[in-house]
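User: Can you predict the 3D structure for this chain?
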Amino acid sequence: QAQVVESGGGSVQAGGSLRLSCTVPEFTNVRNCMAWFRQVSEKEREGIAASYTDGDNTYYADSVKGRFTISRNNAKNTVYLQMNSLKPEDTAMYYCAASTSCPPLVFWVLQEERVVADHEYNNWGQGTQVTVSS
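Assistant: Here is the predicted structure, written as structure tokens:
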């Protein structure tokens, strides 16, 4: 399993912004997909954003669409999640996940929720906490 290193979590007031970063050092020159998930306590983990290896095909859950942006720097093996207009309901532990076996491109083009299915990713970070106060 490759090491997945997240950073950038913290506390912010509603309406504020945060940027999360996720690096997978072993993925140098390796085709890969990366995604962000979040989880609140014992609730089901939610896949919120994902990026196909080319960086041009992305996916967003409805809950974050228009507020969050996923981007990547393949030269640095890093993906970012820019989170704007944060709401208290965005409070959660955020996890980065990565895989060298990407869901087929057609699912990305069709914006299938499958691209953020847990089982599509076999490398997971430890999580970074994001807390949004009202």
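The first helix runs from residue 105 to 109. The two ends are 38 Å apart (CA to CA).
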